[in-house]
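DEPOSITED CHAIN:
***
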Amino acid sequence: MPIALYRIDDRLIHGQVVVGWGQPLELRFIVLVDDEVAGSEWEQELYRMGVPPEMSVYFHGVDDAVPRLAEYERMPEPGIVLTGNIATMQRLVAGAMGQVRAVNVGGVHHAPGRIGRLRYLFLTPAEEEGLREISAAGVDVTAQDVPTAKPVPLADILSATTST
């Protein structure tokens, strides 16, 4: 079964990912790609606590994740590849050389310098450019906070504005 979802969510593993996406997609594993978390046993243990026992979690830095994507694609049950920011997903997409077909942008929350695009999506100009670059690599980029919401195409994301 292929990877069911490549997702950007700055909260990484949390209830919306595990339950909101995990149940409808029947996910059995999460691949968390984050250079910092990959090097921290303590943080890995915290994230594992938020995952039910029937779901496996794998932690990788970007350089380690890229060559393993094909292995995860061949797993018998569906999974999700999760990054905490756009720059990390950009690096993953670039390294995967066409393997990633679609990216879901979930929660990227308010911070100084970010512009509200959707109620759950705030972006800096550099992050917007990062999404454009992911799209230019042939990847379908959409925003969607929960699986029951309608996916918002990149062009609509970049033209939308919301108050903070």
